[in-house]
Amino acid sequence: MRRKLVAGNWKMNGSTGSIRELLQGILGGAAEVAAVELAVFPPFVYLGAVEQQLSGSAVIWGAQNMCDQGSGAYTGEVSGSMLNDFHCTYVIVGHSERRTLYGESDQVVAQKFAAARKVGVKPILCVGETLDERERGVTEAVVGRQLKAVLDLEGIGSFADAVIAYEPVWAIGTGRTATSGQAQEVHAFIRAKLAELDPALANKVRILYGGSVKGSNAAELLAMPDIDGGLVGGASLDAKDFLAIAKAGC
Ligand code: 13P
């Protein structure tokens, strides 16, 4: 049985005050959704404050990105060992906004995945096709290629501690959610790809759906057999909305 994970990717949002309030709200309702693993992903600069507020609670935290290098002359970057200093459980790698706005290739994403594992931070690998790719019927080819880059570098065993997030780019921040059927189809494809290499492990890997998840559509999505949680953007900035999504996964 895979425990569901509901993860809030705050992207570049929040302030010291708003984050304190948001976490108070989440902590207030966390006990009611204890069946689900809850995680938040603040911007780097707030990790210390988030750690302080969440330490000892059931809510865990992680980072939205990291550098593929260990240390050195990489101005503006943050390493995996720095994330460890703030006791991050997870790090998101290969979010579509990193891939499209900051030019991260499949290879760089795979190197980030490897760098995270090296320091014991669990990677959440994001994959997903653009609208153009979906309309051209190459969704599986794209997702398969993104997955293969990591499998080639790190091997199937590396997914034992990793999470995958399927985020169709056309559903991110658009209010346009993939139907539960569309999402399930790609999730099943991802699991089948892993199962070709290790069926037992494939059965254990959590695959999250991301893209305009909200309280009103979460129950249907999270009820699908291969959807093991959500990677939530906009709705994770409101404690009530975020908890409603988690409740749908209980
Ligand atoms: P939205 O939930 O705002 O569509 O964002 C999804 C996402 O990109 C989470 O990583």
UniProtKB/TrEMBL annotation:
GO MF annotations in UniProt: triose-phosphate isomerase activity
A biological process from GO: glycerol catabolic process
Binding site for substrate: N9, W10, K11, G173, S212, G233, G234
Active site: H95, E167
Compartments in which it is found: Cytoplasm
Enzyme Commission identifier(s): 5.3.1.1
Known catalytic reactions: D-glyceraldehyde 3-phosphate = dihydroxyacetone phosphate
Domain of life: Bacteria
Pathways per UniProt: Carbohydrate biosynthesis; gluconeogenesis; Carbohydrate degradation; glycolysis; D-glyceraldehyde 3-phosphate from glycerone phosphate: step 1/1; Carbohydrate metabolism; erythritol degradation
One GO CC term, this protein: cytosol
The entry's keywords: Cytoplasm, Gluconeogenesis, Glycolysis, Isomerase
Major localization class: cytoplasm
Family, as annotated: Belongs to the triosephosphate isomerase family.
Reported function: Involved in the gluconeogenesis. Catalyzes stereospecifically the conversion of dihydroxyacetone phosphate (DHAP) to D-glyceraldehyde-3-phosphate (G3P).
Subunit field text: Homodimer.
Annotated protein name in UniProt: Triosephosphate isomerase
Source species: Candidatus Contendobacter odensis Run_B_J11
